Amino acid sequence: MATGSNRKTKQRDALVSVLERAERPLSVAELLEAASKRIEGLGVATVYRAVGALLDDGRIDAVEIPGEPTRYERSDKGHHHHFQCEKCDRVFDIAGCLDNLRKLVPPKFRVKQHSVMLYGVCATCSR
Amino acid sequence: MATGSNRKTKQRDALVSVLERAERPLSVAELLEAASKRIEGLGVATVYRAVGALLDDGRIDAVEIPGEPTRYERSDKGHHHHFQCEKCDRVFDIAGCLDNLRKLVPPKFRVKQHSVMLYGVCATCSR
DNA sequence: TCGATAATGATATCCTATTATCAATAGAAG
DNA sequence: CTTCTATTGATAATAGGATATCATTATCGA
Question: Pick from A107, A108, A111: which is nearest to B118 by CB?
Fold first, then answer.
């Protein structure tokens, strides 16, 4: 809500940069770890604050998975879905989507959005 | 783990009955409310215990949705997915499934299971 | 009908992601 | 360089679902 200013800080820059470059959705813990390599002593609260602001600005989207901490990813990727590896717990983007999902729904049900989660073992952990 | 006995109680009977007859996945709160109509003073702990036991026995399955309490449903329904109404929060079964999901995944990724969640407004709330 | 003990219900506790608090720090305007 | 105050970081507090505890109750075999 605060329309206050928006000072440029190294921690925010680092976090934005990590999110921009990320090739998969990252949790707060992952963000903290990644950005900590550049920012000595980065705190969790700062990560949560930055994530909150970026969500408000619509620059990132939340990827929610049952029983898992929320992941975040750039919002400019277009419609897609996700895959979670049961070994390393990482979440990956899956391009494409079956849009014929709608026809599964009974009449009178209005579908506004959907999410598809795939679970299995990722390429790295398959080796 | 306990291989202990398994006494027949009215609360368990009521809960099993509610789950058997349910036409959609029910949360612990919904189970409690439904079964309370028959069992005076039914407690939450009992519902959790019954649900736990039924899960162990494989008689029911958990339906997990991000940010929502887990729902439970009979495990003999066959593969299907779910729809949640944004008005009443209820979850409904959606028959059928797009099995071509697998082909969306990059090579070397092994898909073991998937879940599809549809969100929108149910028939009742559409009126 | 008794007795051993599983099951129940009320409630305290845990868990874990997220938010709030507050003193210390550091952008940035002048 | 100073000053103002947004931002930070450490940590306490919150929230909500699920589990543990324990005295009381009720099931069921003898």
Answer: A111
Helix, strand, coil tally for chain B in percent (to 5): 35, 25, 40
Give the class (CATH, top level) of B81-126. alpha beta
Would the pTM count as exceeding 0.85? Answer: yes
Q: Are A51 and A43 in contact (CB under 8 A)?
A: no
Between helix A28-36 and helix A44-56 the angle, nearest 10°, is 110
User: pLDDT, tens digit, for every residue of A62-89?
Assistant: 999 999 999 999 999 999 999 999 999 9
Q: In the structure, how far is the CA atom of residue A126 from the C1' atom of nucleotide D23, in angstroms?
A: 52
Select B10-74's CATH number: 1.10.3720.10, 3.30.70.1450, 1.10.10.10, 2.70.180.20: 1.10.10.10
